[in-house]
Amino acid sequence: RCVALRCVALQVRTPRDLKGLSGLVLPGGESTTIAHVCGNAGLMPPLRALKESGVPVWGTCAGLIFLAGECVGASEKKGGQALLGGLDVTVHRNFFGSQVSGSFETTLLAPPCLAPHGGTEDFRAVFIRAPAIVRVGEGVETLCELPLAPERQCEVDLGTRGTKFVDKVAIACRRGSLLTTSFHPELTTDTRWHSFFVAMCRESGKQFVLPAE
């Protein structure tokens, strides 16, 4: 139970655990492992049903990859990972590098969506072997971007879409009931991103009805 946010968080391990949920957080971790665990637990069909029902879903880091429509920079993963999909973006896995050399923290300007939840004009973002959104599709709102240092700017292979030069990447996006962040808000004491998602859930007013087996 989170008193500050006036909500209750539950663990989801089986399809039955999804019943009655007002929102779902797909956490960080290892996206391929998350996909395998969801597949083995029979969670993929009900997760897709929940996503399509309009119940808000928030994917952070690996959860962002899981919600993406396309994933690049992951040749070793081809054929080995199912994506839940739903967000028309292209995500570059591990864009910033390995967990040891590519993890970092930075301070960024807080987007307007956080303004109703108080706090300062900026926020602290923690990136751990993080993905980055290198293409944002139509209908997807970019909430926050990260400008890249000159040495990080590069041409990105988008597969069948060709290549694209990137000098900044999207790190938070939303389309309707779907929210994604490539950083880890849960690793700071700033709860505004959590408040924003809880507000999405309350505004939605939906609770997931588990499809009949």
Automatic annotation (TrEMBL):
> Which reaction(s) does its UniProt entry say it catalyses?
L-glutamine + H2O = L-glutamate + NH4(+)
Fetch the PROSITE patterns from UniProt. GATASE_TYPE_1, PDXT_SNO_1, PDXT_SNO_2
Active site feature: 61 (nucleophile), 184 (charge relay system), 186 (charge relay system)
SUPFAM superfamilies hit by this protein:
Class I glutamine amidotransferase-like
Among InterPro entries, the record links this protein to: Class_I_gatase-like, PdxT/SNO, PdxT/SNO_CS
Respond yes or no to whether keyword Hydrolase is given for this record: yes
Provide the protein name. Answer: glutaminase
